[in-house]
C-alpha cells in the first residue's frame, strides 16, 4: 500500500510541475509534425510501392519510424523527468519524512519509479494514437506494431530505472540528469567500436541497448532481449534501493 | 483516526543506551531515558549537542548504531512501521514539497501515516481548523513564509493524532501570538495524553511549557530533572554550567 501512496505523491508532484507539461507539449508537437512528414512521404511513394508485392507498408514507413523518433527523444526526456525523484527530495530535505513514515527504501524507489513509468506510458500511448487514428483507413501490421511497442515500453522502463538510480546517487537533480543521459548513451553505443571493427557478436554487443531494441522495432520478439531489459531494470532499482537504505542507515 | 495504543503500563518512549556517530564523530553517546504519557519533555543543548540526531532517531528517520528504542514497550527498531501511526514529527525547518498545496501536503502526510478516505478528510478538516490554515489551504508550500511553513509542518505532525509528538525547534520563525498559540496547543496535547518532546534553544520555552528537561552536551545526557514552573534563573544556571564545563557531570 505504501508503494501506491508514494507513487500517488510522486505522480501529483509530476503533474503540478511545469516541466512534465512542457516536455509533453514540445515532444508531442515535434512527433506530430514528424508524423505528418512521414505520412506525406508514405502517400507520395504509394504508387511506386504498389508494384512491389511485399513492399514496406504503413507500419514500416510511418508507425515504426515514429516510435524510433520517440526512442531518440526518450534519451533526453527520461533523465529530465527522473532527475528530481530522489535527488530533489534529498535537496528539499523531504526524504527523512518518507523514512519517518516507516516506508521502506524499496517501496520509496518502486513508488517513484511507477509514477514516472505511468507518465512515460501515457506519452507513448499519445504518440501511438497518431498512427492508430489511421488504422481504419490503412493496413496496419499489428504484430510488428505490437513488437515495436513492446520494445519501446521496455526501453522507456529501462531508461526510467536508470534515471531513478542516478537520482538516488546524485546530490543535485542536474547532476542526476547529466549522469542518466551519459549512462544511457554509453549503454546504447557501448558496442560502437566493436561494430566499426566488424565484430558483430560477443559480450560487448550483448551489453549494448541498441542490440536489444532494434530487433524489437523490426518486429522480432526474443525472450533474451526481454530478459536483458528486465535485468537492467532490476539492477538499477536494486542499486537505488541500496543507496537509499544506506542513507537511512547512515544519515 | 485515533491512534490505537496497546493497554500497557510501559512508558510511551524508552531509549536504552543509544549511540550514533555522524560525520566520523560521536553525535549521541549512551543515551537512555523514558517518557510517560502526557509529559512534555524539553530537550536542551548547544548547537551540535546531539538534539536533532536524537530526535531523528526517535522519529525513525535515522537508525542508531547501538541501543534500543521502545514505543509503548514495543521495539521500534524491529518494527519501524510503528512510527507511521504512533509518532508525529516536526523536523527543524519543516521540510516540505514546494510544488504541493497546503491541503495536498496534509492529504499526502495522512496517506503516508495510514489514514484513508473518510478518516483522512475528517483529519485534514479538523487540523486545518485547529491551526487556522483555511486561508492557506490552496496555497503552494513553496511560497509560504517561514512561520506558515512551520505551522503546516506542525499540522502534518499532529494530523494522525500520534501518541508521541517530536518537535524540533517548533517556535522557529513564529510571531509572539503564534508562539502563545503553540504553547497552548502543546499543553492541550499533553493533557489529552500525548507525550511530547520539544527541542529548543529557548530556555523560556522550556520553563513555560515543559514538565521535565533533559540537557545534552557533546552527545551525552548531562541533566535530567523536573522543571520548576517559570524558574528561568535556575534552569539558566544549570544550562550554562553544563555548556561551559567540558567535563561530564553525573546526570541528576
Q: What form of chain A results from the Cα inertia axes?
A: globular
Number of strands of chain B: 10
Report the principal-axis shape of chain B: globular
Number of helices of chain A: 13
Described by its quaternary structure, the protein is heterodimer
Q: How many structural domains of chain A?
A: 1
- Main sheet characteristics of chain B: 6 strands, mixed
Q: Approximately how much helix is present in the residues of chain A?
A: over 70%
Question: Would you give an account of this structure?
Answer:
- The complex is a heterodimer of chains A (251) and B (252).
- With 251 residues, chain A is an all-alpha fold.
- Chain A has one domain (3-249).
- Chain A has helices spanning 2-16, 18-44, 46-50, 58-82, 87-92, 95-100, 105-132, 142-169, 173-189, 192-196, 202-207, 209-217, 223-250.
- In chain A, α4 (58-82) runs parallel beside α8 (142-169) and α4 (58-82) packs antiparallel against α9.
- Chain A is globular.
- The mean pLDDT of chain A is 92.
- Chain B has 252 residues and is an alpha/beta fold.
- In chain B, α3 packs across α4 (117-130) and α3 (102-112) packs parallel to α5 (146-158).
- Chain B starts with 12 loop residues before the first strand and ends in an 8-residue tail after the last helix.
- The interface between A and B is medium-sized, with 23 and 30 residues.
Q: What would you say about this model in short?
A:
Chain A is built from 13 helices and no strands.
Secondary-structure blueprint of this entry?
The complex is a heterodimer of chains A (251) and B (252).
Chain A: H1 2-16, H2 18-44, H3 46-50, H4 58-82, H5 87-92, H6 95-100, H7 105-132, H8 142-169, H9 173-189, H10 192-196, H11 202-207, H12 209-217, H13 223-250
Helix pairs in contact in A: 1-7, 2-4, 2-7, 4-7, 4-8, 4-9, 7-8, 7-13, 8-9, 8-12, 8-13, 12-13
Chain B: E1 13-22, E2 25-35, E3 40-44, H1 51-59, E4 66-71, E5 74-75, H2 82-86, E6 87-90, H3 102-112, H4 117-130, H5 146-158, E7 164-168, H6 176-191, E8 195-199, H7 203-209, E9 212-217, E10 220-226, H8 232-244
Parallel strand pairs in B: 3-8, 3-9, 6-7, 7-8
Antiparallel strand pairs in B: 1-2, 1-4, 4-5, 9-10
Helix pairs in contact in B: 3-4, 3-5
